[in-house]
Amino acid sequence: MLKKYSDILEKFKQLEQSLQEPAVINDPPKLKEVSQEYTDLKTIADKIAELASIEKNILETERTAETDQEMRELAEAELLELNDRRKKLETELADLTRPRDPLDKKKRHYGNPRRCRW
């Protein structure tokens, strides 16, 4: 697993612990900030966990293919499927972890919403 992903998981665990601290719970602005960051990282953390699981399954399947001749064909077919899933997850994670534009979170108001435009 990449260091970037392990750093994200560590940050996610820290946020989980922060959400249980009384100092954060009793401070609404801080709670909102931590909750928002936790929500933003939840999807990424789930994908990273899924990727780690797939990588573990790939290693186990490779060992099975090497040791058991009868299961070799099934293991090779499963390896193809697991590698496809891993590549798909890696591209999804690359998109999710790409730096975001800070203006994306700002509320934008384009003109008067009550004004008729036709």
Throw out a few tags for this protein.
single chain, 118 residues, mainly alpha, 4 helices, 0% strand
Structural class: mainly alpha
Residue stretches low in confidence (pLDDT < 50, at least 5 long) are: none
Shape, per Cα inertia axes: elongated
Strand content is under 5%
Largest sheet: none
Q: Kindly state the mean pLDDT as a whole number?
A: 87
What is the chain-wise order of helices and strands?
Answer: HHHH
Radius of gyration: 22 Å
Number of β-strand runs: 0
The number of helical elements comes to 4
Share of helical residues: over 70%
- Whole-Å distance between the termini? 55 Å
Describe the structure.
Helices cover 72% and strands 0% of the residues. It is built from 4 helices and no strands. It has helices at residues 3-18, 22-25, 28-67, 72-96. The model has no long low-confidence stretch (mean pLDDT 87).
Write the layout of secondary structure elements.
Blueprint: H1 3-18, H2 22-25, H3 28-67, H4 72-96
Task: Provide a concise account of the structure shown.
The chain is an all-alpha fold and 118 residues long.
